[in-house]
Each structure stands twice: as structure tokens, then as C-alpha cells.
Write a structure and sequence with these properties.
177 residues; alpha/beta; binds inosinic acid; binds magnesium ion
Length: 177
Amino acid sequence: MVKLHDKKFELYIPDRTIQERVKELSEVIKSKISPTDDLHFVVVLNGAYMFAGDLTKHFETTCGISFLKVSSYEGTSSTDKIELQLDVDGSLEDKRVIVVEDIVDSGNTIDFLINHLKKKKPKSIEICTCLFKPRAYTKEHEIDFVGFEIENEFVVGYGMDYNQLGRNLKDLHVISS
Ligand code: IMP
Ligand code: MG
């Protein structure tokens, strides 16, 4: 059991299971990439930092990695007021972009990011997320690569936070009722 601010969290998905799945996911992505693709990962800070590190180390071929930062979450609920706080540096023109997210919940963030990144004229944009809450998702875009589908529960760890705490935990934890 972990206490962060006023809430308690219990073990949800252990580190070992996460690592096995991330490796598997990297193999799935690799099987769909052709040698002519100019592969470029766009990592969504802060939450995706740990997932992105684990995922991208399984790629042996050349690929670009850049970062952007958005804010939307307050406490344990999503808001639709999304702000871009940091943009990617460099060009994404003609690149095969894979956006790396920690978790897709309502889909507001992904929707915002796709519209934002399209303006940079990449060849394509795909979404890779560690966690996906299908029952909370309200958008149309297909989520191309998903680590784990989860229920509508609030989770922390593996990069994800509750009011800025819990990101460093290597196991995923879920809010305890
Ligand atoms: P969306 O815009 O509703 O899809 O939410 C996306 C962002 O909210 C994610 O990238 C996370 O940073 C954050 N988020 C959503 N659900 C959770 C959660 O259960 N724990 C921690 N952060 C979350
Ligand atoms: Mg995120």
C-alpha cells in the first residue's frame, strides 16, 4: 500500500508484467515498420517518460525521439482545457510519427495532439499508449498500440502521478476504495 497526499493506492500491475508487455509491444511495432520509414517517437511529458525509455531501448535501428508537454489533468479527473507547454524541436516533415503516451483516458489529449502534430506535415501519425481506458474514451481515432486495457480507475506509478507524486514507482498502483 502506498499513500500519496490524501489517497491510498494498492499494487495493480507489477514491474515484471509491465516489462514483458513493453518488450512484446516493441516487437509488434517493429514488425509493422519498414526500412524506408523515417521513424520518429514523440513522447508526451511528463507521464510517458518511463514507458518511452523502456519502449525505445528495444529499437536497434535509427529513430528520432523528441518530447512535448501538455497539461490537462487536475487531481483524479480529466479536463478538456488542454494546453501545450512545450513543443517538439526540429521538423517532423515526412516522418512516420509514433506518439508515446502514458495513458489514454477521455482521449481529449490525443485529439489535441493529433491536430497539433498534423500541422507539422508528418507522413503519418500513430498512437502508442501504455494504458488505455476504453470505457472512458470518447474519440474516434484508433489507438494503434496499447500495452494494457484497464477499467475506469485512477492509477499511479510507472511515470503516472497523483498531483505530481507517484511517478517514480516501478509498479502500477490503483486507487484503493
Ligand atoms: P485524456 O485527455 O482524458 O485522455 O487524459 C490523458 C492524460 O491524463 C494522460 O496522458 C495522463 O497524463 C492523465 N491521466 C489519465 N488517467 C490517468 C490516471 O488514471 N492516472 C494518472 N494520470 C492519468
Ligand atoms: Mg500523458
